[in-house]
Amino acid sequence: MPELVNQCQGCGWIGEDDALASRYPDIERLGMRTSPGEIIPSGECPECGALCHVVPMPKAKLNIFDLEYLLELCRSDCPPEENGESEAELMYDKIKLMAKEMFDA
């Protein structure tokens, strides 16, 4: 996963260089679409045609409620073992404890 991506000023599209409709310096009417001192755009958006600029890759935001929901889904899909507790149950408890420590810190 790249650390830098392109983000559209118009629609918010985010993608890599090879997905741009056109790349700098091949942007049509670049001088008319930018202001003096503006950061040079990286290209044009494939979705709406607006200018894109290089930005850091957005970080995924995960909260404790998302994690608990995902763990519940995982736990419900795993059948119990003969002793009544599946390996998923044990892993679920460990992950939940680690997540609580992480989010409470």
Q: Tags for this entry?
A:
105 residues; alpha+beta; 16% strand
Descriptive notes:
This protein has 105 residues and is α+β, with helices and mostly antiparallel strands. It has two domains: 4-56, no CATH class; 64-104. The chain has three helices and five strands. The chain has helices at 30-33, 64-77, 87-104; strands at 4-8, 14-15, 22-23, 43-44, 51-56. A five-stranded antiparallel β-sheet has the order 2-1-5-4-3, with no helix packed on it. A hairpin with a 5-residue loop joins strand 1 (4-8) and strand 2 (14-15). The longest helix has 18 residues, at 87-104. The radius of gyration is 23 Å and the shape is elongated. The protein starts with a strand and ends with a helix. The mean pLDDT is 79.
Provide a compact summary of the structure.
With 105 residues, this protein is of the alpha+beta class. It has three helices and five strands; from the N terminus they run E-E-E-H-E-E-H-H.
Which secondary structure elements does this structure contain, and how are they paired or packed?
Blueprint lengths: L3 E5 L5 E2 L6 E2 L6 H4 L9 E2 L6 E6 L7 H14 L9 H18 L1
Antiparallel strand pairs: 1-2, 1-5, 3-4, 4-5
Helix pairs in contact: 2-3
The helix content is 25-40%
Strand order, largest beta sheet: 2-1-5-4-3
The biggest sheet, with number of strands, parallel, antiparallel or mixed sense and barrel status, is:
5 strands, antiparallel
Poorly predicted runs are none
Number of helices: 3
